[in-house]
Amino acid sequence: MTAAFSNGQPAEDLHHIFFGRGRRKISDDHNLVIPLTVEEHQKAHGPKAREHAEKYCEYMGIDFDKTLLAINSLTNPLKKRDAKKYLNGLTIKMAVKLKSLELDSKYNT
Q1: What sign does the CA torsion over 108, 106, 61, 19 have?
Q2: Could you give phi then psi for residue 48, rounded to 5 degrees?
Q3: DSSP letter (8 states) at residue 19
Q4: Furthest CA-CA distance within the chain
Q5: What does the pLDDT read at residue 20?
Q6: 3: which strand partners?
């Protein structure tokens, strides 16, 4: 079982770092998720949601503002190609990071 992001406890949920207004599907498509406990997940959707998302992005090694801009640019025909290119690059990076979290928790328990 994968360890939760901040406390190393067994993760019970996958949190979509970007959510709302169609962003959840984009998070799914590009592995923009992070393992959390139920308690952490509830906090991530609370009043400090953006603060949590920025922290998760920093931990995962991605630029929050650039990623949010790319997600929002997917609806702009003039910016869509560059946005997709950026997000496709993140897909691989996030898959590798999530796999390393899974392996870390597997061998450190």
Answers
A1: negative
A2: -105, 35
A3: -
A4: 48
A5: 86
A6: 10
- Residues 17-54 have pLDDT tens digits of 999 888 999 999 998 999 899 999 999 999 999 999 99
Taking the C-alpha atoms of residue 13 and residue 102, their distance in angstroms, rounded to an integer, is: 13
13 SS3 class? strand
Phi, psi of 30 (to 5 degrees): -120, 20
Q: Which two tokens stand for residue 51?
A: 């603060």
Select from 21, 15, 14, 23 the least CA-distant residue to 87.
Answer: 23
Pairing verdict, β 33-36 and 13-16: antiparallel
Q: What is the dihedral of CA 74, 75, 78, 82, to 10 degrees?
A: 0
Helix 64-73 to helix 80-107 angle (10° resolution) is 130
In the beta sheet, which residues pair with residue 15?
Answer: 34
- Return the pLDDT at 103: 63
Phi and psi at 21, nearest 5°, equal 45, 45
